[in-house]
Each structure stands twice: as structure tokens, then as C-alpha cells.
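can u do me a favor
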């Protein structure tokens, strides 16, 4: 199973967990498996068919936007990081 690390702002949607595990051979499959256990995460990460542009997704510290997106291969020992984009300033 892949390990999914959740940013603090997403943890409340996963029962307060810092990280969870999910199965799948692609990022899309892993996320689908994740949503089965934590359905409220779907609205935050993937409200449409594609990933939200307000959430940065990394597989082993590589941004999936520069890989194959939801088709990015994921192995059992891989780490996925979900990090909402932050904005601010004046």
C-alpha cells in the first residue's frame, strides 16, 4: 500500500490522521481507494474528474503535473503528499 501524507488542513477530513494508506497501481486508483475510506477528502482533492488546481500532489516528492497526472504509476512503497496551495499577502 502507498502512504499518503496529509497537510494539516486536510487531516480533519481523514479523522485527524497525519498519514493514511491506500492501494492502487496509479495515482487515480490510489485516490479512489482513499475516497472509499475518507469520502470527504474527494471534494478537497478531486471535485471534478481531474485534480483540483488548488491542491499540489506529489509522488515521491515529484509533482504529478510534470509526470502523468492521475495516470502516474504508484508502487507499494511510494509516498504521496497532498498539499493545498496557499496564497496570501496584500
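np, heres the sequence
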Amino acid at each position: 500500500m502507498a502512504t499518503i501524507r496529509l497537510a494539516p488542513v486536510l487531516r480533519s477530513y481523514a479523522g485527524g490522521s497525519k498519514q493514511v494508506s491506500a492501494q492502487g497501481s496509479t495515482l487515480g486508483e490510489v485516490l479512489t481507494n482513499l475516497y472509499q475510506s475518507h469520502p470527504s477528502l474527494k471534494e478537497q482533492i478531486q471535485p471534478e474528474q481531474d485534480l483540483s488546481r488548488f491542491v499540489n500532489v506529489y509522488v515521491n516528492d515529484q509533482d504529478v503535473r510534470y509526470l502523468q497526472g492521475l495516470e502516474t504509476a504508484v508502487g507499494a512503497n511510494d509516498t504521496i503528499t497532498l498539499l493545498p496551495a496557499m496564497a496570501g499577502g496584500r
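The two ends are 42 Å apart (CA to CA). hope that helps!!
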